[in-house]
IKBP1 protein
Amino acid sequence: MALPAPPPARVFAELVPGQAPIPTPTPAGHGSPPALSGREVHVSGSAELSAGPDRARVSLRLGSRKGAAGAARSSVARRLEYIAQSVRQRGVPEENMTVTEDFSRLENTYQMEAEVCIVFSDFGKMQNVCNLLVEKLGTSVTISPPHFYHTPEAVDTLRRQVCVAAVGNTHRKAQEVCRLFGQSLGKPLLIREEETKEWGGHIDSHLSNSLDSLTLQERIQHATAYASCRVFAVFEIKGKENKRNKLL
């Protein structure tokens, strides 16, 4: 049976001799050899990074059904005030909390319903607030599982970080290649971002019902975003490596 063909070799670095320079005319009697043009090293490098979600949104639902309209409103209002007070006391800005109310009449009764959405940037505070409300309000409030997501600023930061990391890896690879041949790495002549990929994470999108059984840590992991970047770079080769720098 014939053996499978070996995979093609992957070139990650290439030493390229510079082109011969065009001689520059010099005055008579002052003919000096033209300076050698610089050589180049072509290198590709990549990096992959991840970032956990930086925001969590929690929804709370509460309601009351009474024979009198005022009683239904008052019951819900007291609990809303307690929720708002608990959130403020734990350092969550008021603008991170939104309240929607719905008042209706059903037969001979009045029904008041409210939904509170709270956005947390500190997941420890989120757990403390949710635990307190469950303890103090019990079944009179329904708390949905937290939804974790990334803000646009967090996504942009991840993209910048993975690109910078790829450039850094490419530079280190070029240094190692030059040292292998006893050369000294010079300045970059070209740095080009060739490919970027992003996957995972939920950018402010609701979780599906199939994920309701996940634990808190599993939800955070499920919302973690990943990004990779591949960079191509060309560096100048200055010449022989300085022995003193080599020892360092």
User: Anything to note?
Assistant: The chain has two domains: 40-52+152-238, 55-149. The chain has five helices and nine strands. Residues 23 and 29 are 16 Å apart (CA to CA). The domain at 40-52+152-238 is CATH 3.30.110.170 (Translation Initiation Factor IF3).
